């Protein structure tokens, strides 16, 4: 493969005419029906025939990026312009990786560059990435090898190339305890960060709305279900439908969606500040520093929006006619219980951030390293399914660990609104649940909670992809 492409046009050429001739030769090879245009199927088939591996959807992205007249194909001018522009970007990336300017990239330079972007990898993982690009077996990558590997890959910079494995919070499974996204300096200066946050927020809003009935059922079971009052999924939904009709299944969803925007913004800003405070070296964030900064940012955001969490629980559990809306709910809580009521369950909620964020991050890193060590042969790109799977498993493990604290928080938030319920602090409530219902009493409502994970992840991913293309975020 390397020899074919290098022979065609990857040798270092001194003049523009020579490069143009090379592009013409390659274009002629790809334009199999000789209509003066290379379409997606010709590009795919031609590259495969030359032994050039491309990622899924790469041919489509190349044609879409270079197709200026929107005729679903690239003429020679468009084709050569795309390759020239793409090469320029690849050259800049190569230079940014080549720290000692010796014209070659070694595994330490890859490791260092990823560390600067907040992604710690082992020496073995860095060598695996290097091997997937290195053709001549020298365990270093020169410019020609780098260009050959990425020329027909739409990834244009280091951020694109390693973004596959950045732990993302796009997967909204209804809980707000995950560590925030990492953004590179380039994304911050170009304003791409707010587009990504907006796309994520919209994905979260649609995902939460789609799974709201299961979320309401979870809260309902957390508060009302016990050994003496067993509530199954079917009986619970019947009860809700009988009491308030179909629309009652979405009670509390409005405030649950509304809190996404302020929480995301506060968490992002706080995370950036905490990273600066905690990082031992400017610009470099170790995994444990990232965990601490993420947990502190989560705690800051939760503190700011916690009254909305309390209102969400109250509105979710309300009976028909109890509150006319969010403001009425806030007014009645204030009048009857005072300001303190807006922070009921705050301590178990903050304590829940540590096991959630820690286990989520640890499981994700373990799964990432497992995949890289066993399956990363030709590329470091694991594909959508593997990334979704890793994100879902790590988030679910985090939820499982912090679930008892989430249940205590919900019961404390709901105390005053549940008839005949005794007002008690966290320690007494835990003791009472363990005495009356045993250890599994702390996991009431876990079934609907897990049932909503896969639909929530699927909805948020699909919406996020649509939002990305709508906002012009490059993949």
From TrEMBL:
* Membrane-spanning intervals of the chain: 341-364, 384-406
The record's subcellular locations are: Mitochondrion inner membrane
Please give the name of this protein. Solute carrier family 25 member 24
Domain of life where this protein originates? Eukaryota
Solcar repeat boundaries on the chain: 191-277, 285-370, 382-470
Name the PROSITE patterns for this protein: EF_HAND_1, EF_HAND_2, SOLCAR
Q: Does the record's keyword annotation contain Lyase? A: no
Q: Which reaction does it catalyse?
A: dAMP(out) + phosphate(in) = dAMP(in) + phosphate(out); ADP(out) + diphosphate(in) = ADP(in) + diphosphate(out); AMP(out) + phosphate(in) = AMP(in) + phosphate(out); 3'-AMP(in) + ADP(out) + H(+)(out) = 3'-AMP(out) + ADP(in) + H(+)(in)
Gene3D superfamilies assigned to the protein according to its UniProt record, in alphabetical order? EF-hand, Mitochondrial carrier domain
Q: How would you describe this protein's topology in the membrane?
A: Multi-pass membrane protein
GO cellular component terms, alphabetically, are: mitochondrial inner membrane
Family, per entry: Belongs to the mitochondrial carrier (TC 2.A.29) family.
- Family matches, as SUPFAM superfamilies: EF-hand (SSF47473), Mitochondrial carrier (SSF103506)
Task: Show where the EF-hand domain sits.
Answer: 18-53, 85-120, 121-156
Q: Which residues form a coiled coil?
A: none
């Amino acid at each position: 493969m390397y020899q074919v492409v290098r022979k065609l046009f990857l040798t270092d050429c001194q003049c523009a005419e020579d490069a143009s001739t090379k592009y013409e030769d390659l274009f002629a090879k790809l334009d199999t029906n000789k209509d003066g245009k290379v379409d997606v199927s010709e590009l795919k088939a031609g590259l495969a025939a030359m032994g050039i591996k491309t990622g899924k959807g790469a041919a489509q992205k190349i044609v879409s990026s270079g197709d200026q007249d929107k005729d679903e194909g690239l003429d020679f001018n468009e084709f050569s312009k795309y390759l020239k522009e793409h090469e320029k970007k690849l050259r800049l990336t190569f230079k940014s990786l080549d720290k000692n300017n010796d014209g070659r990239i070694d595994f330490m330079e890859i490791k260092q560059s990823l560390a600067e972007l907040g992604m710690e990898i082992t020496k073995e993982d860095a060598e695996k990435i290097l091997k997937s690009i290195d053709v001549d077996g020298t365990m270093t990558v020169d410019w020609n090898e780098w260009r050959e590997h990425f020329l027909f890959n739409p990834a244009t910079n280091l951020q694109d190339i390693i973004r596959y494995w950045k732990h993302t919070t796009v997967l909204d499974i209804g809980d707000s305890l995950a560590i925030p996204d990492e953004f590179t300096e380039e994304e911050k200066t170009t304003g791409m960060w707010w587009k990504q946050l907006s796309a994520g927020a919209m994905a979260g809003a649609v995902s939460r709305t789609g799974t709201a009935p299961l979320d309401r059922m979870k809260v309902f079971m957390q508060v009302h279900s016990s050994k003496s009052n067993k509530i199954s999924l079917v009986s619970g939904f019947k009860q809700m439908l009988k009491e308030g009709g179909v629309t009652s299944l979405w009670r509390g969803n409005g405030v649950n969606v509304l809190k996404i925007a302020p929480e995301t913004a506060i968490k992002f800003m706080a995370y950036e500040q905490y990273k600066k405070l905690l990082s031992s070296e400017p610009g470099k964030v170790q995994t444990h520093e990232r965990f601490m900064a993420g947990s502190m940012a989560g705690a800051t955001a939760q503190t700011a929006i916690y009254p909305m969490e309390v209102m969400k629980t109250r509105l979710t559990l309300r009976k028909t006619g109890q509150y006319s809306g969010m403001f009425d709910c806030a007014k009645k809580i204030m009048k009857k219980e005072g300001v303190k009521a807006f922070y009921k369950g705050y301590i178990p909620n903050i304590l829940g951030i540590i096991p959630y964020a820690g286990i989520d991050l640890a499981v994700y890193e373990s799964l990432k390293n497992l995949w890289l060590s066993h399956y990363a042969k030709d590329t470091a790109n694991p594909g959508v399914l593997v990334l979704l799977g890793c994100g879902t498993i790590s988030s679910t493990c985090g939820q499982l660990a912090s679930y008892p604290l989430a249940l205590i928080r919900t019961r404390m938030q709901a105390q005053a609104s549940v008839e005949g319920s005794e007002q008690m602090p966290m320690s007494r409530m835990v003791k009472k649940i363990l005495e009356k219902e045993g250890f599994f009493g702390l996991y009431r409502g876990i079934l609907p909670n897990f049932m909503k994970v896969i639909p929530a992840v699927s909805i948020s991913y699909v919406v996020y992809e649509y939002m990305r293309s709508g906002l012009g975020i490059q993949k």
